[in-house]
Design brief:
About 50% of the residues lie in helices and about 10% in strands. The chain is an alpha+beta fold.
Amino acid sequence: LGLYSPFMTVDAYRYTMEHTHLGNQAFTVRARGEDLFGKWILALLLTLPTLGVSQVWFSVQAQRYLVERTQLGAVRLRLNVRTADVVGLTIVNLLLVVGTAGLAAPVALVRSLKFMTERLEIIGKPNFRELTQSTAPERRGGEGLLDLLDGDMA
């Protein structure tokens, strides 16, 4: 019943972040699924007695753990989020979406993103002198899609 979940969460996050670059610098992630496994088991065991709040607690713990083990050069990150705040945000967002038959889903998404970014703290001073434009060959992903479609953004 999802026992591999904390490992998959760490692996997916690591893959995403280590393939994300700011100029010539890549993010590094020093996280291990084993570190989240005990909390995951506890959250599973407490899901019914807490009416699912333990799952929100685990999600907050996992997000904080992953963010705090992410670096970009000498810059580290910290996420200042509490489970009670996330529960409140989730309840309001759910009422917004259900109360508007889904029309407020974009508003709920923006609220969630704003909530997280306002609580993300940058630790350390970035060295902008070392940051240069990437010289890696252009990838064949979405960046060139506009050219392919002969689009004009003006």
